[in-house]
Amino acid sequence: MFKLRTFISIISLVVLMACEGSERNAPIASSMEIQAAAYVSPLPNSITLLTMVKASGDFGEHSGILINASQQVLYDPAGTFRHSTSPNARDVNYGMHPAMVDYYKSYHARYGYYVVAQEIQVSPEIAELVFQRAIAQGETAKLRCGIAVSSVLNGLPMFADIRTTYYPGKIMDSFAEVPNVSTTYVYEDDDGQNLDG
């Protein structure tokens, strides 16, 4: 029994380490930088849960939320993603136009890891509420991406079954149960993260 508990504790720690950001004290973008980068998508308002999954065992190791509200942003709590044309302020990346969204997915998809994108169309009011809740979370501590993402989503009626959890895979599984979710996958076979271009 002791060995099983030790094994489970070690596995849990390894899974949670995927959310550990290596650039946590990065500069916070100014309001002028954020305004200049703002991207308004012509597509319907939506919420897209992005989960980075380890292929061996299909463990979800990191979560983020693409939010298409009054502007399209990426909430990437405790994440390491940075790009010179996407200002970041307290874990929210601005200027998330389609090419930048693709770049984010490609940044994470690599040999041994793939990205699951679960999109659902929502009302403008829900999209804006998720956007504001992401901003209100502030910068997320290391290893807490799952807690942050699930906290932003739960409490809203359509996401009522998403429990607060440390585990991105559990959030992904719960999100899959929300009606009308569209799921896509990104696979790549490179050896590491892409660099800022």
Secondary-structure topology with pairs:
Blueprint: H1 2-17, H2 31-37, E1 46-54, E2 59-68, E3 72-75, E4 88-89, E5 92-93, H3 98-108, E6 113-121, H4 124-137, H5 145-153, H6 168-175, E7 182-187
Helix pairs in contact: 4-5
Structural class from helices and strands? Answer: alpha+beta
Radius of gyration: 16 Å
Number of helices: 6
Which range does the strand content fall in? 15-25%
Strand order in the largest sheet = 4-5-3-2-1-6-7
Helix content: 25-40%
Q: Taking all residues together, what is the mean pLDDT?
A: 86
Number of domain modules = 1
Order of helices and strands: HHEEEEEHEHHHE
- CATH fold description: endopeptidase fold (from Nostoc punctiforme)
Distance between the termini: 50 Å
> In the CATH hierarchy, what is the class?
Alpha Beta
Q: Give the CA-based shape.
A: globular
Q: Give the name of the CATH architecture.
A: Alpha-Beta Complex
Give unreliable regions as ranges: 4-17
Care to describe what's here?
This protein has one domain: endopeptidase fold (from Nostoc punctiforme) (Alpha-Beta Complex), CATH 3.90.1720. The model is unreliable at 4-17 (pLDDT under 50). It is 33% helix and 21% strand. β2 (59-68) and β3 (72-75) form a beta hairpin. Strands 4-5-3-2-1-6-7 form a seven-stranded antiparallel sheet, sandwiched between helices. The N and C termini lie far apart (50 Å). The protein has 197 residues and is an alpha+beta fold.
